[in-house]
Amino acid sequence: MAAADHNMDFIILAAGQSRRFSADMPSPGPAKQFRLLSGKLVLLHSLDAIGCWPHCGRIMVVLPEEGVDELVTNQLKEAARSCPVPVQFTTGGATRTASTLNGLRALAEREHSTSVAVHDAARPFVPHHVLDALLAARKAGADGAVPALPITDTVKQVDREQIILSTIGRTSLRRVQTPQAFAFDTLLRLHEAFAGGDSHAKVTDDASLAEIAGMKLICVDGASELEKITFAEDLNMMQNSQQTETRTASGFDVHKFSPDESGPIMICGVAVDHDQGLIAHSDGDVGLHALCDAVLGCLAMGDIGQHFPPSDPKWKAASSDQFLRFALDQVTEAGGHVSLLDVTLICERPKIGPHRQEMTDRLSQITGLPASRLSVKATTSERLGFTGRGEGIAALAQATVCLPSSYTGAKG
């Protein structure tokens, strides 16, 4: 499968004028997507969440035709620079469909993935498990996939005077959310045809357009966090709802070379030729050990020795990739995700440069993260200390993890 098939591009619609929201506000102000939510623009919450998803390819943000003020522009530019994936901006149109078409056209001018998802900026919190489900549905052959929730309230049909006419069965009803995912070329073709035709069909989202075209659409499980800001009270409620926080922690590991055993030695999951082996209980992979400690640090779960004690014969000569996977599993169970893993290897020899790409590829296999979220670096200690004398190898790692702010501790 081509690399583009493993990723999904995103269009974030932020061109609306928020008339219902503004009518509910006591004084004029910016559109809802440019209001502050927990100290950050509403738009930037979804941009950050989507940009940190491991399978995100490229993001196109669609802004109002009339532009935005300088302060917002500067915040958007800074967010784009710090995002781990490419972020571009384009202007929207008078309607939602026109803005989506502009976003698709702008993406089509660049290298793009085979799948694209369209998201409303007014839905600031985007759980990664929903994005995983959308991508899985596309890979399984669905023309399109939308997140949806069952309707739990009783639904009544009323007339213009609000007189109840009947009760509507809710078993087959769903509340549809965004992002909504489709084949890129198909969605572009649908919007081009809609814009060029004289259809008066009511199109409130991209799924509506796909339904008219007779496409095969499926629903995946949505999320309560994906609620939309429509009125001022929605924004106020979200201020008090569950938020996410970013944590960064470090890890360090060192192993001594063995004068009695020859290599190869394991570094970041790769067997590297060396004239000496390592003295260690497990396979002695300093890179993976340091990364494991960094991830555990973000979770406040202690260190690798607490979970895989060297006194336990079970871990004798064990492959260290399972240690790192354990730490990553704790992040997933906590409802979080890893944004970046960075490791610096410290040694005079063996030389790391010739193996750097292989190490990055191996880390990607172990963690499921793309290379853009993995950093493998190397340095020497200028022949100072034990590494400088060639007596061993060390590794310093950092991990950046996003967790629900309600996180109180992972199991393990």
Outline type = elongated
Here the CATH topology of the largest domain equals: Spore Coat Polysaccharide Biosynthesis Protein SpsA, Chain A
State the CATH architecture of the largest domain: Alpha-Beta Complex
Counted by DSSP, the helix tally is 13
Radius of gyration: 25 Å
Class by alpha and beta content: alpha/beta
Count of extended strands: 19
Strand content: 25-35%
Spans where pLDDT lies below 50 across 5 or more residues: none
Largest β sheet strand count, sense and barrel closure? 8 strands, mixed
CATH class of the largest domain: Alpha Beta
Mean pLDDT: 88
Number of domains: 2
Helix content: 25-40%
CATH homologous superfamily of the largest domain? Spore Coat Polysaccharide Biosynthesis Protein SpsA, Chain A
Q: Kindly, what is the distance between the CA atoms of the first and last residues, rounded to a whole number of angstroms?
A: 35 Å
Explain what you see.
The protein is α/β, with parallel strands linked by helices and 412 residues long. It has two domains: 3-241, Spore Coat Polysaccharide Biosynthesis Protein SpsA, Chain A (Alpha-Beta Complex); 245-404, 2-C-methyl-D-erythritol 2,4-cyclodiphosphate synthase (60s Ribosomal Protein L30, Chain: A). 31% of the residues lie in helices and 27% in strands. The chain has 13 helices and 19 strands. The chain has helices at 19-23, 42-51, 70-82, 96-108, 128-139, 184-196, 206-212, 232-239, 286-298, 304-307, 321-333, 356-367, 385-388; strands spanning 8-13, 36-37, 40-41, 56-63, 87-91, 115-120, 144-150, 155-158, 164-168, 174-176, 180-183, 217-221, 244-258, 265-267, 270-272, 277-279, 337-346, 374-379, 392-404. The strands form five sheets. Strands 1, 4, 5, 6, 7, 10, 11 and 12 form an eight-stranded mixed sheet that branches. Strands 16-13-19-17-18 form a five-stranded mixed sheet. Strands 2-3 form a two-stranded antiparallel sheet. A hairpin with a 2-residue loop joins strand 14 (265-267) and strand 15. Helix 4 crosses helix 6 and helix 9 (286-298) packs parallel to helix 11. The chain is elongated and about 90 Å long. The protein starts with 7 loop residues before the first strand and ends in an 8-residue tail after the last strand. The mean pLDDT is 88.
